[in-house]
Structure formats: structure tokens, C-alpha cells
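Protein modeling request. Please complete all fields; requests missing the sequence field cannot be processed.
Requester role: graduate student
Desired output: 3D structure, C-alpha cell encoding
Chains: 1
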Amino acid sequence: MMQRRGGGRPMSRSVCVKMQLNIDTFMEHPGKRFPVDVSLDAGRATSMSENVTFLEDVTVSGEAYVQLTTLYLDTEIHTVVEQPCRRCLEPVREKVEVSERFRIEIPEGESSIDLISRILGFITAALDPHPLCRPDCRGLCPVCGVNLNDHPDHVCQEKDDDHVHLRDFLK
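Delivered output (171 residues):
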């Protein structure tokens, strides 16, 4: 454990507050690798994402170090998400485990860097863009919207085509 500047409670060596990395600590020790262990609340992650519900907090662990004005990170990202099935809209649960190495240019005068948008971007890129609840998903009835997986014998009468009536009117 390290002592906090000015005394107070000891802080962990991860130099992180939620998804923020304290750049000052890295700049004081260039080249030294520090452990990274941060998390983001599932509710906050969900509110920042489209069509994805986070069922578990996003956790990021790994190492980071600074060289000149660049922060280098080697991370493992873990969470569980839920997306709608492409065909029937039923929820599809997916475990996300991503390893990412990346770098961030440190803006002059900044004392911390927020990782949220980058981490959520890595998660989004790792997700299946067209998730299916199962490989043989039958989807929804195009006429009435009934889930054909739940009602395999469903037969729907075709709607009357309004264009036919319009065509007859124009004759």
C-alpha cells in the first residue's frame, strides 16, 4: 500500500478511481509498471450503450506505464451483457472476455484520463453484431408479430393488400 499525498488513508497501487487513471503518479515514475484494477457499474455502462444491457459490472485489470507523453495499457476486460436476438427480439446473454493492448496520448495539463469510452468501445467491438437466441431461431411472424419459436404451428392469414383496392379504384 502507498500513503496518499498529505497523509490520510493508504491507497492501493492501482492509481485508479472508477475508470479514471491518475496520470501524475505515472509521470512521477516513467517506465514503471503499475497494476490497473478498475470497474464500472453495470447500470452506468448500460446507460452509456445502445441496445446492450450490462448484467454485471465491467471489470478491467492489467498493467499500465508511461513513456514520454504516452500511456501504455495491457488490459483484460470482463463483463456479461444482454442484447436482443436479431430475429425474435428475445434477450441473448453473452459473456465478454477481451484482452486489449492500447496506448493513449496524454493531453498536456491533464492529471487523469477517463477510460470509459475506450473500454465500452472494446466491448462493443467484441460483441456479435447479429446475435441469435439459437441457431435455428424462426423469428417473428411478419404479419402479426407472434414469436414463431413459441408457436411453431402458427399460420397467419395474409392481410388484404390495400394497394389492390387502390388499383381497382384507379381503373
